[in-house]
Amino acid sequence: MPSHLKITAIKPYPARVGIRNQFLVKVETDQGISGWGESGLTGREKAVAGAIEHYREFLIGQDAMQIGRIWQEMYRSQYFEGGRVLQAAISAIDIALHDIKGKALGVPVYQLLGGKQRNVIPTFASTGDSAGEGAIERAKELMAMGFDAIRFFPIGQDSRDIFEPRQSIATTARLLNRARAELGDEVVLGIDYHHRLSVAEAASFCNKLDKGVLDFLEEPIRDETPEAYESLRTMTDIPFAIGEEFASKWQFVPYIERGIHQFNRLDVCNVGGLTEAMKVAGWSEAHYVDLMPHNPLGPICTAATIHMAAAVPNFAWLETRSPERGLGFDNDDFFPVQPKLEGAVYPVSDAPGLGVEVNEDLLAKQNFSFWEAPHLRRNDGSVTNW
Question: Between the N and C ends of the chain, which has fewer C-beta atoms within 10 Å?
Answer without folding.
Answer: N
